[in-house]
Write a structure and sequence with these properties.
- 42% of the residues lie in helices and 20% in strands.
- The chain is an alpha/beta fold.
- It has a seven-stranded mixed beta sheet, with helices on both faces.
- The N terminus is likely disordered.
Length: 273
């Protein structure tokens, strides 16, 4: 049997080991490939104003599945999760500033505005930012700052916010990023913006060997639903490396969602839980 045949048989018999090996292989994709994926993501999510299916994916109130009960429920659930995280850290939820990366239709931001003086919405879709601003106006709320970035401008966000954050929030977004490295760059920005002791709720799609949820590297517009994923231990280590201490992880195995509750470690703190 050829060497290739032996490797195929081993991979079939030991899928976890094969997946771990594959993650260590150098990528053959070029910088141009990554740039194209990033452009494709920007083009796709900018269609939410004119395409009801994209508006549904962006969680716009009244579009697709998002009747009022479903839409308001999203914000309420994430507030409850962050209240639990704050309690586990001996804190109360609230403060000066919260930033959501990818606010979509605004359910989270509207709910969290009750707890924070200022909320920031960062998005690559101007249509989504306009929809959030419309929801705030309709509900008679202020305190919102929207920040539009081109997809490749992740590193510009901290300078445009200009203050330290009490909370960083990102749900139903990491799975749609145009690559794992892109997600890690956003995570790095989050860590840099949070105050010591600041909290974060980040939801990812986790890779547990299920081929459907494996990370992709091509054809963004046809695979955007499940484009980016991380092994749970891989993302845990990435958070820790940025000074974000994992406090809790909640899994939804039906869709391979993992919600990471994180706390920003002060320079003198012991990173161990």
């Amino acid at each position: 049997m050829s060497g290739l045949g032996r490797r195929v048989r081993y991979a079939l018999a030991h899928p976890s080991a094969a997946l771990a090996y594959a993650r260590r292989l150098p990528s053959r994709l070029t910088a141009d490939d990554a740039a194209k994926r990033t452009r494709d993501a920007g083009e796709f999510w900018s269609e939410s104003e004119g395409d009801e299916a994209v508006a549904d994916m962006s969680h716009w109130r009244g579009k697709g599945r998002w009747d009022d009960e479903q839409w308001y429920g999203v914000g309420r659930r994430h507030v409850a999760m962050l209240e639990q995280l704050a309690g586990a850290c001996g804190q109360e939820l609230g403060g000066g500033a919260l930033l959501e990366w990818g606010g979509g239709g605004g359910s989270n931001l509207l709910a969290f505005r009750e707890h924070f003086a200022r909320v920031y919405d960062v998005d690559i879709s101007q249509a989504n930012l306009d929809e959030v601003a419309r929801q705030f106006e309709e509900h008679g709320k202020d305190g919102l700052t929207t920040i539009h970035i081109e997809p490749e401008q992740v590193a510009s966000v901290p300078g445009r916010v200009g203050e330290a954050l009490d909370v960083f929030l990102c749900t139903a977004v990491f799975q749609h990023f145009p690559g794992k490295d892109y997600g890690l760059e956003v995570l790095r920005c989050a860590a840099g913006m949070l105050k010591p002791g600041g909290l974060s709720l980040v939801q990812i799609r986790y890779d547990n060997g299920n081929r459907r949820y494996a990370a992709k590297d091509r054809d963004y517009k046809t695979q955007f639903l499940t484009f980016t994923s991380y092994a749970i231990d891989e993302f845990w280590q990435a958070c820790s490396a940025e000074g974000l201490q994992p406090i809790a992880v909640r899994l939804n195995p039906d869709v391979n969602y993992a919600f990471f509750g994180l706390r920003k470690i002060a320079p003198t703190q012991d990173p161990a839980p």
